[in-house]
Protein backbone atom coordinates (compact mmCIF):
# COMPACT_ATOMS: atom_id res chain seq x y z
CA UNK A 1 0.00 0.00 0.00
CA UNK A 2 1.13 3.52 -0.54
CA UNK A 3 -0.40 6.54 1.13
CA UNK A 4 -2.24 9.34 -0.63
CA UNK A 5 -0.19 12.52 -0.32
CA UNK A 6 -1.76 15.76 0.92
CA UNK A 7 -0.47 18.53 -1.34
CA UNK A 8 0.01 21.58 0.91
CA UNK A 9 1.16 23.73 -1.99
CA UNK A 10 -1.98 23.05 -4.02
CA UNK A 11 -4.34 23.60 -1.07
CA UNK A 12 -2.43 26.78 -0.15
CA UNK A 13 -2.72 28.12 -3.69
CA UNK A 14 -6.47 27.59 -3.60
CA UNK A 15 -6.97 29.22 -0.20
CA UNK A 16 -4.57 32.07 -1.00
CA UNK A 17 -6.64 32.83 -4.11
CA UNK A 18 -9.70 33.37 -1.89
CA UNK A 19 -7.65 35.45 0.56
CA UNK A 20 -6.37 37.65 -2.29
CA UNK A 21 -9.97 38.32 -3.39
CA UNK A 22 -10.89 39.38 0.15
CA UNK A 23 -7.80 41.60 0.37
CA UNK A 24 -8.70 43.28 -2.94
CA UNK A 25 -12.26 43.91 -1.75
CA UNK A 26 -10.99 45.41 1.53
CA UNK A 27 -8.53 47.62 -0.32
CA UNK A 28 -11.41 48.88 -2.48
CA UNK A 29 -13.23 49.79 0.75
CA UNK A 30 -10.18 51.85 1.74
CA UNK A 31 -8.57 49.37 4.14
CA UNK A 32 -5.62 47.50 2.65
CA UNK A 33 -4.71 44.62 5.01
CA UNK A 34 -1.25 45.13 6.51
CA UNK A 35 1.05 42.75 8.39
CA UNK A 36 4.08 43.93 10.39
CA UNK A 37 6.85 41.35 10.79
CA UNK A 38 9.59 41.87 13.36
CA UNK A 39 12.84 39.93 12.99
CA UNK A 40 15.59 40.21 15.59
CA UNK A 41 19.06 38.91 14.74
CA UNK A 42 20.55 37.12 11.77
CA UNK A 43 19.36 33.52 12.20
CA UNK A 44 19.45 32.38 8.54
CA UNK A 45 16.43 30.04 8.87
CA UNK A 46 14.34 32.83 10.42
CA UNK A 47 15.42 35.21 7.67
CA UNK A 48 14.19 32.72 5.03
CA UNK A 49 10.80 32.30 6.75
CA UNK A 50 10.35 36.04 7.09
CA UNK A 51 11.20 36.55 3.43
CA UNK A 52 8.64 33.88 2.49
CA UNK A 53 5.96 35.55 4.61
CA UNK A 54 6.62 38.99 3.13
CA UNK A 55 6.54 37.68 -0.43
CA UNK A 56 3.33 35.70 0.24
CA UNK A 57 1.73 38.93 1.53
CA UNK A 58 2.70 40.83 -1.61
CA UNK A 59 1.23 38.15 -3.87
CA UNK A 60 -2.06 38.23 -1.92
CA UNK A 61 -2.37 42.03 -2.05
CA UNK A 62 -1.51 42.41 1.64
CA UNK A 63 0.87 45.21 2.58
CA UNK A 64 3.79 44.17 4.76
CA UNK A 65 6.13 46.10 6.99
CA UNK A 66 9.39 44.34 7.68
CA UNK A 67 11.23 45.54 10.78
CA UNK A 68 14.73 44.18 11.32
CA UNK A 69 16.81 44.60 14.47
CA UNK A 70 20.36 43.51 15.31
CA UNK A 71 20.73 40.50 17.63
CA UNK A 72 21.94 42.69 20.52
CA UNK A 73 19.03 45.18 20.38
CA UNK A 74 17.65 46.16 23.76
CA UNK A 75 14.19 44.66 24.44
CA UNK A 76 12.89 48.16 25.34
CA UNK A 77 13.47 49.30 21.74
CA UNK A 78 11.36 46.44 20.38
CA UNK A 79 8.69 46.92 23.06
CA UNK A 80 8.43 50.63 22.17
CA UNK A 81 8.03 49.73 18.48
CA UNK A 82 5.32 47.21 19.38
CA UNK A 83 3.41 49.92 21.24
CA UNK A 84 3.54 52.12 18.10
CA UNK A 85 2.33 49.28 15.88
CA UNK A 86 -0.49 48.49 18.32
CA UNK A 87 -1.64 52.10 18.10
CA UNK A 88 -1.30 52.38 14.30
CA UNK A 89 -4.73 51.86 12.71
CA UNK A 90 -3.19 50.99 9.32
CA UNK A 91 -1.51 47.87 10.81
CA UNK A 92 -3.80 44.84 11.24
CA UNK A 93 -1.40 42.06 12.15
CA UNK A 94 1.85 41.92 14.13
CA UNK A 95 4.21 38.95 14.10
CA UNK A 96 7.42 38.70 16.11
CA UNK A 97 9.50 35.92 14.59
CA UNK A 98 10.56 33.32 17.18
CA UNK A 99 12.94 32.37 18.65
CA UNK A 100 14.21 35.69 20.09
CA UNK A 101 17.75 36.27 21.41
CA UNK A 102 18.30 35.42 25.07
CA UNK A 103 18.01 38.98 26.48
CA UNK A 104 14.27 38.79 25.60
CA UNK A 105 11.47 37.44 27.78
CA UNK A 106 9.48 35.82 24.95
CA UNK A 107 6.23 35.58 26.90
CA UNK A 108 6.42 39.30 27.78
CA UNK A 109 6.95 40.22 24.12
CA UNK A 110 3.98 38.10 23.01
CA UNK A 111 1.79 39.70 25.71
CA UNK A 112 2.81 43.15 24.46
CA UNK A 113 1.13 42.54 21.09
CA UNK A 114 -2.46 43.79 20.99
CA UNK A 115 -4.85 40.81 21.23
CA UNK A 116 -6.72 42.20 18.22
CA UNK A 117 -3.53 42.19 16.07
CA UNK A 118 -2.13 38.87 17.35
CA UNK A 119 -2.34 37.03 14.01
CA UNK A 120 0.04 34.31 15.29
CA UNK A 121 -2.48 33.47 18.05
CA UNK A 122 0.30 33.33 20.67
CA UNK A 123 -1.07 35.94 23.13
CA UNK A 124 -2.22 34.40 26.42
CA UNK A 125 -5.73 35.76 25.89
CA UNK A 126 -6.04 34.09 22.48
CA UNK A 127 -4.58 30.87 23.93
CA UNK A 128 -7.14 31.02 26.76
CA UNK A 129 -9.97 31.63 24.32
CA UNK A 130 -8.88 28.67 22.19
CA UNK A 131 -8.76 26.45 25.28
CA UNK A 132 -12.37 27.43 26.00
CA UNK A 133 -13.40 26.81 22.38
CA UNK A 134 -14.24 30.50 21.95
CA UNK A 135 -13.56 32.50 18.82
CA UNK A 136 -9.88 33.51 18.70
CA UNK A 137 -6.97 34.01 16.35
CA UNK A 138 -5.80 30.44 15.93
CA UNK A 139 -2.07 29.61 15.80
CA UNK A 140 -1.21 29.29 12.11
CA UNK A 141 0.50 25.89 12.02
CA UNK A 142 -2.14 23.81 13.83
CA UNK A 143 -4.90 25.81 12.11
CA UNK A 144 -3.30 24.96 8.75
CA UNK A 145 -3.32 21.28 9.72
CA UNK A 146 -7.04 21.50 10.57
CA UNK A 147 -7.67 23.06 7.13
CA UNK A 148 -5.92 20.07 5.57
CA UNK A 149 -8.19 17.65 7.48
CA UNK A 150 -11.22 19.59 6.31
CA UNK A 151 -10.09 19.69 2.67
CA UNK A 152 -9.30 15.96 2.70
CA UNK A 153 -12.55 15.01 4.43
CA UNK A 154 -10.74 13.50 7.41
CA UNK A 155 -13.33 12.73 10.10
CA UNK A 156 -12.13 13.75 13.57
CA UNK A 157 -15.05 12.83 15.83
CA UNK A 158 -14.05 9.97 18.10
CA UNK A 159 -10.74 9.18 16.40
CA UNK A 160 -7.55 8.43 18.32
CA UNK A 161 -5.17 11.35 17.71
CA UNK A 162 -1.59 11.36 18.95
CA UNK A 163 0.47 14.55 18.91
CA UNK A 164 4.22 14.23 19.45
CA UNK A 165 5.42 17.56 20.87
CA UNK A 166 4.02 19.89 23.54
CA UNK A 167 5.35 23.29 22.49
CA UNK A 168 3.24 26.42 22.89
CA UNK A 169 3.37 27.16 19.16
CA UNK A 170 2.57 23.72 17.72
CA UNK A 171 1.96 20.71 19.97
CA UNK A 172 -0.32 22.18 22.64
CA UNK A 173 -2.59 24.22 20.36
CA UNK A 174 -2.75 21.25 17.94
CA UNK A 175 -3.96 19.04 20.79
CA UNK A 176 -6.50 21.70 21.78
CA UNK A 177 -7.93 22.04 18.26
CA UNK A 178 -8.19 18.26 17.89
CA UNK A 179 -9.89 18.02 21.29
CA UNK A 180 -12.36 20.75 20.32
CA UNK A 181 -13.08 18.82 17.10
CA UNK A 182 -14.00 15.68 19.04
CA UNK A 183 -10.86 13.55 18.74
CA UNK A 184 -9.50 11.57 21.69
CA UNK A 185 -6.08 13.16 22.09
CA UNK A 186 -2.82 11.91 23.56
CA UNK A 187 0.11 14.33 23.81
CA UNK A 188 3.57 12.72 23.80
CA UNK A 189 6.94 14.36 24.48
CA UNK A 190 10.50 13.57 25.49
CA UNK A 191 9.41 12.14 28.86
CA UNK A 192 6.83 9.79 27.34
CA UNK A 193 7.38 6.12 28.23
CA UNK A 194 6.99 3.74 25.29
CA UNK A 195 6.27 6.27 22.56
CA UNK A 196 5.68 3.51 19.99
CA UNK A 197 2.81 2.10 22.03
CA UNK A 198 1.01 5.43 21.61
CA UNK A 199 1.92 6.13 17.99
CA UNK A 200 0.81 2.66 16.82
CA UNK A 201 -2.69 3.30 18.19
CA UNK A 202 -3.07 6.61 16.38
CA UNK A 203 -5.62 7.08 13.62
CA UNK A 204 -4.13 10.55 13.29
CA UNK A 205 -0.46 11.07 14.11
CA UNK A 206 1.01 14.58 14.22
CA UNK A 207 4.80 14.89 14.52
CA UNK A 208 6.13 18.23 15.85
CA UNK A 209 9.45 17.20 17.37
CA UNK A 210 12.31 18.86 15.52
CA UNK A 211 14.24 15.62 14.85
CA UNK A 212 14.84 14.58 11.24
CA UNK A 213 12.99 11.39 10.15
CA UNK A 214 12.25 10.45 13.77
CA UNK A 215 8.90 8.76 13.05
CA UNK A 216 9.47 5.58 11.04
CA UNK A 217 6.96 3.32 9.30
CA UNK A 218 7.01 0.73 12.10
CA UNK A 219 5.59 3.40 14.47
CA UNK A 220 2.56 4.04 12.24
CA UNK A 221 -0.82 2.27 12.38
CA UNK A 222 -1.78 0.88 8.96
CA UNK A 223 -4.03 3.36 7.15
CA UNK A 224 -3.37 6.23 9.60
CA UNK A 225 -3.21 9.92 8.65
CA UNK A 226 0.33 11.18 9.29
CA UNK A 227 0.98 14.92 9.56
CA UNK A 228 4.60 16.02 9.49
CA UNK A 229 5.10 19.47 11.02
CA UNK A 230 8.89 19.18 11.30
CA UNK A 231 11.22 21.37 9.29
CA UNK A 232 14.82 20.21 9.58
CA UNK A 233 17.74 21.29 7.44
CA UNK A 234 20.15 18.44 6.66
CA UNK A 235 23.92 18.94 6.26
CA UNK A 236 23.48 18.76 2.45
CA UNK A 237 21.12 21.78 2.67
CA UNK A 238 17.96 19.79 1.88
CA UNK A 239 14.84 20.08 4.04
CA UNK A 240 13.29 17.08 5.72
CA UNK A 241 10.49 16.50 8.17
CA UNK A 242 10.21 14.68 11.50
CA UNK A 243 8.73 11.70 9.64
CA UNK A 244 10.70 9.22 7.59
CA UNK A 245 8.51 9.74 4.55
CA UNK A 246 9.78 6.74 2.57
CA UNK A 247 8.96 4.13 5.22
CA UNK A 248 5.87 5.88 6.64
CA UNK A 249 4.14 6.24 3.27
CA UNK A 250 4.10 2.45 2.79
CA UNK A 251 2.00 2.09 5.98
CA UNK A 252 -0.07 5.30 6.25
CA UNK A 253 -3.31 5.99 4.38
CA UNK A 254 -2.73 9.74 4.06
CA UNK A 255 0.51 11.66 4.61
CA UNK A 256 1.97 15.17 4.27
CA UNK A 257 5.35 15.75 2.61
CA UNK A 258 8.15 18.14 3.64
CA UNK A 259 8.58 20.51 1.92
CA UNK A 260 5.18 21.21 0.38
CA UNK A 261 3.01 20.07 3.28
CA UNK A 262 2.26 21.94 6.51
CA UNK A 263 4.80 24.77 5.92
CA UNK A 264 2.92 26.53 3.13
CA UNK A 265 -0.36 26.14 5.06
CA UNK A 266 1.19 27.97 8.03
CA UNK A 267 1.85 31.01 5.87
CA UNK A 268 -1.61 30.76 4.32
CA UNK A 269 -3.29 30.88 7.74
CA UNK A 270 -1.17 33.89 8.68
CA UNK A 271 -2.48 35.71 5.60
CA UNK A 272 -6.03 34.65 6.46
CA UNK A 273 -5.74 35.95 10.03
CA UNK A 274 -4.40 39.27 8.72
CA UNK A 275 -7.37 39.64 6.36
CA UNK A 276 -9.82 38.73 9.16
CA UNK A 277 -8.24 41.38 11.38
CA UNK A 278 -8.39 44.00 8.60
CA UNK A 279 -12.03 43.13 7.94
CA UNK A 280 -12.86 43.69 11.63
CA UNK A 281 -11.02 47.03 11.56
CA UNK A 282 -12.91 48.09 8.43
CA UNK A 283 -16.27 47.24 10.01
CA UNK A 284 -15.34 49.03 13.23
CA UNK A 285 -14.50 52.12 11.15
CA UNK A 286 -17.88 51.88 9.40
CA UNK A 287 -16.31 51.03 5.99
N1 LIG B 1 5.75 23.65 9.31
C1 LIG B 1 5.66 24.75 10.05
O1 LIG B 1 4.99 25.67 9.69
C2 LIG B 1 6.36 24.82 11.35
C3 LIG B 1 7.31 23.88 11.62
N2 LIG B 1 7.94 23.86 12.83
C4 LIG B 1 8.86 22.74 13.05
O2 LIG B 1 8.19 21.78 13.86
C5 LIG B 1 9.11 21.13 14.72
C6 LIG B 1 8.65 21.34 16.17
O3 LIG B 1 8.65 22.71 16.47
P1 LIG B 1 8.38 23.26 17.96
O4 LIG B 1 7.14 22.68 18.47
O5 LIG B 1 8.56 24.72 17.89
O6 LIG B 1 9.67 22.59 18.69
P2 LIG B 1 10.07 22.50 20.24
O7 LIG B 1 11.52 22.16 20.24
O8 LIG B 1 9.58 23.66 20.99
O9 LIG B 1 9.26 21.21 20.75
C7 LIG B 1 9.61 19.90 20.39
C8 LIG B 1 8.78 18.92 21.16
O10 LIG B 1 9.20 17.60 20.80
C9 LIG B 1 9.40 16.84 21.98
N3 LIG B 1 10.45 15.85 21.78
C10 LIG B 1 11.77 16.07 21.57
N4 LIG B 1 12.43 14.91 21.47
C11 LIG B 1 11.51 13.93 21.62
C12 LIG B 1 11.57 12.52 21.64
N5 LIG B 1 12.74 11.88 21.48
N6 LIG B 1 10.44 11.82 21.83
C13 LIG B 1 9.26 12.46 22.00
N7 LIG B 1 9.13 13.80 22.00
C14 LIG B 1 10.25 14.53 21.81
C15 LIG B 1 9.81 17.84 23.05
O11 LIG B 1 9.55 17.29 24.32
P3 LIG B 1 9.84 18.14 25.69
O12 LIG B 1 8.74 19.15 25.77
O13 LIG B 1 9.76 17.10 26.74
O14 LIG B 1 11.20 18.74 25.52
C16 LIG B 1 8.94 19.04 22.69
O15 LIG B 1 7.70 18.98 23.31
C17 LIG B 1 10.46 21.74 14.37
O16 LIG B 1 11.07 20.91 13.38
C18 LIG B 1 10.12 23.09 13.79
O17 LIG B 1 11.10 23.56 12.90
C19 LIG B 1 7.61 24.77 13.80
C20 LIG B 1 6.69 25.75 13.57
C21 LIG B 1 6.02 25.88 12.32
N1 LIG C 1 6.17 34.11 15.45
C1 LIG C 1 6.40 33.03 14.69
N2 LIG C 1 5.41 32.53 13.92
C2 LIG C 1 5.62 31.43 13.15
O1 LIG C 1 4.69 30.97 12.44
C3 LIG C 1 6.93 30.83 13.14
C4 LIG C 1 7.92 31.40 13.96
N3 LIG C 1 7.63 32.48 14.72
N4 LIG C 1 9.16 30.86 13.98
C5 LIG C 1 9.54 29.74 13.13
C6 LIG C 1 8.37 28.87 12.73
C7 LIG C 1 8.61 28.06 11.47
N5 LIG C 1 7.60 28.48 10.53
C8 LIG C 1 7.50 28.06 9.19
C9 LIG C 1 6.65 28.65 8.29
C10 LIG C 1 6.63 28.27 6.95
C11 LIG C 1 7.44 27.28 6.48
C12 LIG C 1 7.44 26.93 5.03
O2 LIG C 1 6.85 27.60 4.21
N6 LIG C 1 8.09 25.84 4.61
C13 LIG C 1 8.19 25.42 3.23
C14 LIG C 1 9.65 25.36 2.77
C15 LIG C 1 10.40 26.63 2.92
C16 LIG C 1 11.87 26.50 2.54
O3 LIG C 1 12.15 26.04 1.42
O4 LIG C 1 12.72 26.81 3.39
C17 LIG C 1 7.61 24.03 3.08
O5 LIG C 1 7.55 23.31 4.07
O6 LIG C 1 7.28 23.67 1.95
C18 LIG C 1 8.29 26.66 7.36
C19 LIG C 1 8.31 27.03 8.72
C20 LIG C 1 6.86 29.47 11.10
N7 LIG C 1 7.24 29.73 12.35
From TrEMBL:
Pathway: One-carbon metabolism; tetrahydrofolate interconversion
Biological process (GO), any one: tetrahydrofolate interconversion
InterPro entries hit by this protein: Aminoacid_DH-like_N_sf, NAD(P)-bd_dom_sf, THF_DH/CycHdrlase, THF_DH/CycHdrlase_cat_dom, THF_DH/CycHdrlase_CS, THF_DH/CycHdrlase_NAD-bd_dom
Record-listed NADP(+) binding positions: 165-167, 231
Domain Tetrahydrofolate dehydrogenase/cyclohydrolase catalytic stretches: 6-120
CDD domains in UniProt: NAD_bind_m-THF_DH_Cyclohyd (cd01080)
PROSITE patterns for this protein: THF_DHG_CYH_2 (PS00767)
Secretion signal span: none
Main function: Catalyzes the oxidation of 5,10-methylenetetrahydrofolate to 5,10-methenyltetrahydrofolate and then the hydrolysis of 5,10-methenyltetrahydrofolate to 10-formyltetrahydrofolate.
Family membership noted in the UniProt record: Belongs to the tetrahydrofolate dehydrogenase/cyclohydrolase family.
Assembly and binders: Homodimer.
Protein name: Bifunctional protein FolD
Organism: Parazoarcus communis SWub3 = DSM 12120
Lineage: Bacteria, Pseudomonadati, Pseudomonadota, Betaproteobacteria, Rhodocyclales
Amino acid sequence: MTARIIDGNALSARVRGEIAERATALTARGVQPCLAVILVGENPASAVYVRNKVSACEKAGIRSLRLDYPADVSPEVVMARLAELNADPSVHGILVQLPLPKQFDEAAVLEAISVTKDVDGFHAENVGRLSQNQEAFLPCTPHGVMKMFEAEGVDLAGVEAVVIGRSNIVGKPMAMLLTNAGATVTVCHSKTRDLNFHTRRADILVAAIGKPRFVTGDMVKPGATVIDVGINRLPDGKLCGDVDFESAKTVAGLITPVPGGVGPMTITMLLENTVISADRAARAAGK
